[in-house]
Design a protein that fits this description.
alpha/beta; 3-stranded parallel beta sheet; two-stranded antiparallel ribbon; 5 strands; 31% helix
Amino acid sequence: MRWNNSALGGIRRERLHPSKRLLAINNYFYRRGGAEAIFLEHMQLFSEIGWEVIPFAMQHPDNDASAWSEHFVSEIEYGRESSLLTKVAQAGKIIYSFEAQRSIEALIEQAGPISPTRTMSIITSRPRSLPR
């Protein structure tokens, strides 16, 4: 194994043939608050124990750098002033986002399987414990 400054925003251990891959999904990919700090730290922990970590989030100017950011979905910022039409469109995206569906399908297609017998694990919130 070797250490590398990765496009995930931190240092990670790389294996020539990673045996585990994690799709990490969160609204934000920067330290916006406590939940995001924990999310990013969990990504780092998984990376340190040899997992290949692939993030998926909304686009935002404050996001950490990622080789996968081309797949991130358009930002929905709820605290901004916006028209009624924009709010209705955002409400629809909260229920179901075709953009997110297309983006995550493309990301998974690009990432591909590690092997025919292994699948991609997904986290969307805090795991109870890290697998070893």
